[in-house]
Specification:
Low-confidence stretches: none
Mean pLDDT: 90
Order of helices and strands: EHEEHEEEHEEEHEEHEEHEHEEEEE
Strand content: 25-35%
Number of strands: 19
Structural class: alpha+beta
Radius of gyration: 23 Å
Shape: elongated
Length: about 300
């Protein structure tokens, strides 16, 4: 089985499910999952997890993201992007670039955002987009999101190109729609490029055709990232061989059962660590419990099949 993460550049015209389906065909493997939906018209970073790495799909979905988008002022659509049915148009000649920029900056910070009807969220057991296609509109609760920063890259009204850094759950087309509403002229998203998901950057992404070529040339390992790369920001520790079975089974561990790479033997209160065995096989994420002086498992990734695999 292939285990790892591919930093896929999703091209226009593909759904996220299309990407997974094609990768299943390319790799001949069923156990594959993506880490967050991108609309068919959107492009950019879509981390895809294979094999054991599917355990981190939810973790990657929760990571902060960055986008480049083009806001078109003066047009409102039912999907909040340019592909939708036009609901209204207004002149933007009375709006200055300075006013538009100030309005955009006002969305930086913690805000409540109402999810669009054309989204995959479920209400009453049904996807919102299914209801929207039936001409139905239901009440949606606003959700608290964080827009860490918006950098305006270019203004040529009615178009504004900008970079958005935001938390999980942020709908960029809704952000464009809301900016247009606040300006009083309406607005919709004309283009979307996702440039980053957590540590996965567009500069390191690969297209599906490149993956197919890599598989054909038996060099997939050159672009496949290991599962533990998701936690590269956490300090690495190893369980001693004689206690390895405790780690494999998710048992708490004492400090003396651990090998530390650093000279300082202390642990941070509530600190999180990447745990490995002495053969450098990734076991999981452990947290230090100050009250008991033990390291306790937070998330386990070890599979007994790893024992027989090459390290």
């Amino acid at each position: 089985m292939i285990n790892g993460i591919l930093n896929i550049y999703k091209e226009r015209g593909y759904t996220s499910h299309d990407v997974v389906a094609r990768l299943r065909g390319i790799t001949g493997q069923k156990k594959i999952g993506h880490t967050g939906t991108l609309d068919p018209d959107a492009e950019g970073v879509l981390p895809v997890c294979l094999g054991r790495a599917t355990k981190v799909c939810g973790i990657l979905t929760d990571r902060d993201k960055s986008y480049e988008t083009v806001l078109l002022l003066g047009k409102t659509t039912d999907t909040q992007d340019i592909s939708g049915k036009v609901l209204g148009e207004s002149p933007v000649s009375v709006i200055t670039e300075k006013e538009a920029a100030a309005c955009i900056r006002s969305f930086i910070g913690d805000i409540d955002q109402v999810p669009p009807m054309y989204s995959a969220l479920k209400v009453g057991g049904r996807r919102l987009y299914e209801l929207a296609r039936e001409g139905k509109t239901v009440e949606r609760r606003g959700r608290r999101i964080t827009v860490f920063d918006i950098r305006i890259l270019d203004i040529s009204l009615p178009h504004i190109r900008m970079e958005v850094k935001c938390s999980k759950g942020t709908y960029i087309r809704t952000l464009c729609h809301d900016i247009g509403c606040k300006l009083g002229c309406g607005g919709c998203m004309e283009h979307l490029l996702r440039t980053r998901v957590g540590k996965f950057d567009i500069r390191d992404s690969v297209k599906l055709d490149e993956v197919e070529k890599a598989v054909a040339e038996n060099r997939l390992d050159g672009i496949l990232l290991p599962l533990d790369s998701v936690f590269a920001d956490l300090q690495k520790i190893s369980v001693k061989d004689r206690y390895a079975s405790l780690g494999y089974n998710g048992n708490p561990l004492l400090a003396e059962q651990i090998i530390r790479a650093d000279m300082d033997g202390s642990y941070e209160t509530d600190g999180r660590y990447r745990l490995y065995d002495e053969a450098d096989r990734f076991i999981g994420i452990y947290c230090y419990d100050k009250k008991t002086g033990k390291l306790r498992p937070e998330k386990m990734f070890f599979d007994s099949d790893q024992i027989s695999e090459r390290t």
